Amino acid sequence: MSEFSPDARPARREPVFNMPGIIVLLIIVFAAVHAWREYLIDAVTDGDVLRHFAFVPGRLTAVFDMDAIAATLTAVSRDANQLDIARYFLDDASAQYWTLISYSFLHGDWVHLGVNSLWLAAFGAPVARRLGWLRFLALFVVTAIAGALAYYVFHRTDFVPMVGASASISGIMAAAIRFVFVPGGPLGPPLYPFPLPPHLAARLPAVGLIAALSDRRVVQFTLTWFIINFVFGLASIPLGITAAAVAWEAHAGGFLAGFLLFSLFDPPPPDPSEFGDSLPQDDWLRRDHT
Asked: CA-based diameter of the chain, in Å?
């Protein structure tokens, strides 16, 4: 390792507001879509939006197991309201596969959107800096699909629509813990006498999957996340926290996808020379940390 003065500082100055553009864009899109639904269209049109863009598990099941759907409709036939909802969202019994992704751009209310936006800003920023906008969007899409499929496993004949970006944000949180705890990383022990700039701290080599599962901080974060997610999912309605059920299964599916598939989206580690005078020139970045 090169020798340098304890008073050395990175040459590059980071702006006060340094949220990656793709994060800002997603939050703007979330807000614009919800504002359009809330203020610019009527309830009937909004119902059509949910019918064509929210994820409805029963509609997917209807493609290959109409007998199960018929049994569900028979079971709810005594409740006219539930029967009407099922028929409305069953629509023409087409799968509408795009809803495996499009549901993540819809939200239940402004609080739902606000909470998701805060978590996306906090955990999405380092992931977006690391992956770049295209890889980040690919991760967002894959974790959205994984979340929808995980939810489907537990609700295959349900006709209550699922909305929200929480599954993708959970996946992005899981992707972040694969690298934020490494030495010099955003939450890791210091690598130098000064904090590395965010653009560099977020790009240090990630640990491999096996090493991540052996890291006490990663394990503690993961266990805590699953416990909170599970408890909140089961207790949110009884405690009056939310009016609608929390799709904890979708969150878990997105989280697992982000954690297990992170390496497929992670670019090669940068060469130290790429950062000029931002840090002392040594061989740390060239070491194999996988």
From this structure: 78
Q: What is the pLDDT of residues 49-103, one digit of tens each?
A: 999 999 999 999 998 998 998 898 888 888 888 888 888 898 877 889 999 999 9
CA angle 261, 264, 267 (to 5 degrees): 130
Contacts of 79 (CB under 8 A, 6+ apart): none
- At 78 the pLDDT is 85
Q: What is the pLDDT of residues 249-268, one digit of tens each?
A: 999 999 999 999 999 999 98
- In terms of C-beta distances under 8 Å and separation of at least 24 residues, what long-range contacts does 136-140 make, across chains too? 136/20, 136/22, 136/265, 137/22, 138/265, 139/168, 139/171, 139/172, 139/175, 139/258, 139/261, 139/262, 139/265, 140/26, 140/104, 140/168, 140/171, 140/172
Residue 13 pLDDT: 52
Beta strands in the chain (DSSP E): none
Q: What is 21-275's CATH number, 3.80.30.20, 3.30.1220.10, 1.20.1540.10, 3.30.300.180?
A: 1.20.1540.10
Whether the CB-CB separation of 23 and 17 falls below 8 Å is answered with no
Contacts 24+ apart (CB under 8 A), 63-69: 63/93, 63/94, 63/95, 66/93, 68/156, 68/157, 69/93, 69/157
